[in-house]
């Protein structure tokens, strides 16, 4: 198996682009969790639990529909958001 440095130039360029996209995704996740911090404050004040199954179902349906409309392979958005939602609920539970 060829090492990372032995990759063809086109592959190196594609990897660099993926790295740039990953950096933007991280920035968006930081922004998202900034909003989640406000949600925690609202939920704490109102006595609302972190896990709200109706909201989870709504979000999963919405992101899967958005992904499908943009040509993302079926199930990818749902799989990724399940992890994101689980991490968000865990974060909220630690801070409620």
Automatic annotation (TrEMBL):
This is chorismate mutase. Its EC number is 5.4.99.5. Keywords: Isomerase, Lyase, Pyruvate. GO terms for molecular function: isochorismate pyruvate lyase activity. Pfam families: CM_2. Residues 5-96 form the Chorismate mutase domain. InterPro entries: Chorismate_II_sf, Chorismate_mutase-related, CM_dom_sf, CM_II_prokaryot. It comes from Xanthobacter agilis. The keyword Isomerase applies.
